[in-house]
Specification:
The protein is of the alpha/beta class and 207 residues long. The protein has one domain: Flavodoxin domain (Rossmann fold), CATH 3.40.50.360. 41% of the residues lie in helices and 21% in strands. It has seven helices and seven strands. The chain has helices at residues 17-32, 53-63, 70-75, 77-87, 105-114, 159-168, 186-206; strands at residues 2-8, 36-42, 91-97, 121-124, 127-130, 136-142, 173-179. The strands form two sheets. It has a five-stranded parallel sheet with strand order 2-1-3-6-7, with helices on both faces. Strands 4-5 form a two-stranded antiparallel sheet. Helix 1 (17-32) packs parallel to helix 7 (186-206). The two termini are 16 Å apart. It binds flavin mononucleotide.
């Protein structure tokens, strides 16, 4: 069976606008793709490993082209588990709100944990090679404001960052569904959630 890893970066559970949209994506996805299993990774509940000096030292060993050894290998056990969980998926769904023009710190911490040399990318004579190949990603996001036009567009560090970092590791087939603005009145919020839900369902049907 193929696996869709659903990475959740909002702590708001049933109150979450983002999850209202990804919920619709998943309903259609499960209906149309019975041969897939959906695994949830809620970053707001998971105790993610922190990047201590020892763990960071391990990163530099790998960047130097060497393998982890002794205490560094031990310190990296939980990082490797997260990397394996990520790479064992065939596709990804990320549910994330915008926080301070970018992503919540839990998602950033997760990215800092899994984006590692030798595992997700490597340096070759021709430059960087992303090692996560032929995998799709859907990002479902919501934002208080609207970053679609004018001066606000320059404040969107969420979509460009996610495209850059996951593109760096080889995931270039990334589709975004964005519900915005969410915090400019209840009518607008309702309308934009419905619109994003429709887009998410279409995307799931075509997946
Ligand atoms: C800590 C925090 C920071 C936020 N920063 C922004 C921001 O920079 N821009 C924005 O448009 N909305 C911002 N918001 C609003 C959320 O993006 C918005 O309410 C979103 O719909 C919340 O999604 P959720 O209900 O799935 O958690 C912020 C909300 C929180 C809690």
């Amino acid at each position: 069976m193929k696996k869709l890893l659903h990475i959740i970066a909002t702590p708001r559970g049933e109150e979450s606008r983002t999850l209202q949209v990804s919920g619709k994506f998943l309903d259609t996805f499960k209906e149309k793709h019975a041969d897939w299993v959906v695994e949830e990774l809620d970053l707001t509940r998971e105790v993610l490993p922190s990047l201590t000096v020892k763990r960071v030292d391990g990163k530099y060993v790998l960047l130097g082209g060497k393998d982890l050894f002794g205490g560094l290998k031990e310190a990296w056990e939980d990082i490797i588990l997260h990397i394996e969980r990520f790479t064992s998926a065939d596709a990804y769904l990320i549910s994330t709100p915008m926080w301070n023009f970018s992503i919540p710190y839990t998602l950033k911490q997760y990215i800092d944990i899994i984006v590692q040399p030798k595992y997700l990318f490597r340096y070759t004579a021709g430059g960087v090679e992303g090692l996560v190949k032929n995998k799709k990603m859907i990002v479902i996001a919501s934002r208080g404001g609207d970053y679609n036009s004018g001066t606000m567009r320059a404040f969107d560090f969420q979509e460009p960052y996610l495209r850059a970092v996951f593109g760096f590791v080889g995931i270039t087939d990334i589709a975004f569904v964005i519900a915005q603005p969410m915090d400019m009145g209840p009518d607008m919020q309702k309308e934009k959630i419905l619109l994003a839900q429709k887009q998410a369902q279409e995307l799931a049907a075509q997946f």
